[in-house]
Design brief:
binds zinc ion, Quinone Oxidoreductase, Chain A, domain 1, six-stranded parallel sheet, seven-stranded mixed sheet, alpha/beta, Rossmann fold
């Protein structure tokens, strides 16, 4: 194995990434080093790249690592890491998927079982790339998995193209629909048919949703969400006002609205219409709005009088990641997982990948290190 590796480091919005070479760290006991084979551009990476998220205000040091969704092989195992989360023995070279954040398992939040909300789960990823262990993001040749990580061996039947989206997008919507308690026969609206949206359609149908409605304005995305099982789509180019979209969803649900609505657009302006298209007694899953400081104004009485439950989902549990892997294995012949990654770029072309995905026609771009 090489002694050093390249990491694409982020400095400021729209500035070119700086490809820096760092020594590959030796993992501490309980840790592991992954050799990244594929890293996807998630919507949250784009928010950083555009400058929607102000890292200076957040006190994040630069150079900063970006990238969290991806897959790879075991490069180095720390002492005490001999098996994956299900007990399968691990060796160097094994393909794995991994939880990229680290719940402490000891704080009051973790002890209540809310490991997805552990306040320190991302602390190890927040340091400067120039400081050990350097590889804090997946836009790099390596990724350092701190102790208390969870990882699973990747079944041979699944390709990197298929599994690369498992550890963020797919696990996230599985966790969200689970926490929202989506049950058999219910209806679902999905605001935004990007990577999370198309997965959400597949997962919702597998949970027995009687009707799934995808809302977007890009042909490729609308086609893909239908292929993931959406029964109907609402094209925002045609239904170009919030009222028109709410009415369209009500018309498709016997005038009632959807039992579960997912916000996967990442803009606060869509929340009000999302609540309006949700049925009385329904649940609103808020996943996309990660831009701290972006406000919206709406009348919260809609939540009160319709008794809507709002569920926030930033991360998922280790069990959700295992369920995501199992779901993909069971449905790989039925759902077009391989089409979620619509474009591939070498890691050295990360700037181009960001620019192209920002144009909106790409469902998700993948970066390939070492190319
Ligand atoms: Zn993500
Ligand atoms: Zn904790």
């Amino acid at each position: 194995m090489a002694d050093t590796g390249i990491a694409a480091t982020y400095h400021a919005p729209k500035e070119p990434f700086d490809l820096r070479e760092y020594p590959v760290p030796d993992p501490k006991p309980g840790a592991a080093v992954i050799k990244i084979s594929m890293a996807n551009v998630c919507g949250s990476d784009l928010h950083y790249w555009r400058g929607d998220i102000d890292i200076k205000k957040m006190g994040r040091p630069t150079p900063m690592a970006l990238g969290h969704e991806g897959t790879g092989t075991i490069a180095k195992l720390g002492a005490g890491v001999g098996a994956d989360a299900l007990g399968a023995p691990l060796r160097e070279g094994d393909r794995v998927v991994f939880q990229y954040f680290y719940p402490c398992m000891q704080c009051p939040t973790c002890l209540k079982g809310h490991t997805y909300a552990c306040p320190v789960r991302q602390t190890d990823r927040a340091g400067s790339s120039d400081e050990w262990p350097h590889f804090r993001g997946t836009f790099a040749e390596y990724y350092y998995l701190s102790p208390k990580h969870a990882l699973f061996k990747t079944p041979d039947a699944l390709t990197d193209d298929q599994v690369a989206g498992i550890n963020c997008a797919l696990s996230q919507v599985i966790s969200g629909l689970d926490r929202a308690g989506l049950s058999f026969g219910e209806t679902v609206a999905i605001q935004g048919a990007g990577g999370l949206g198309v997965y959400a359609a597949g997962v919702a149908k597998a949970r027995g949703a009687s009707k799934v409605i995808g809302i977007d304005g890009v042909d490729e995305r609308l086609d893909l969400i239908k292929d993931f099982g959406a029964d109907d789509v609402v094209d925002i180019r045609e239904y170009d006002t919030p009222d028109a979209r709410v009415q369209a969803v009500r018309d498709l649900t016997d005038g009632v609205g959807t039992d579960v609505t997912l916000e996967l657009v990442g803009h606060p302006g869509v929340v009000r219409e999302g609540l309006d298209m949700t049925a009385p007694g329904g649940r609103y899953l808020e996943i996309g709005n990660i831009n701290v400081g972006w406000d919206t104004q709406f009348d919260p009485s809609v939540i009160v009088f319709k008794s809507i439950t709002v569920v926030g989902v930033a991360h998922y549990t280790a069990a959700d990641l295992g369920n995501a892997l199992r779901f993909m294995e069971d449905n790989v012949d039925r759902l077009p997982f391989h089409r979620v990654l619509s474009h591939h770029f070498p890691l050295s072309q990360i700037d181009r990948a960001m620019e192209e995905q920002d144009k909106g026609y790409i469902t998700r771009a993948a970066l390939i290190p070492g190319s």
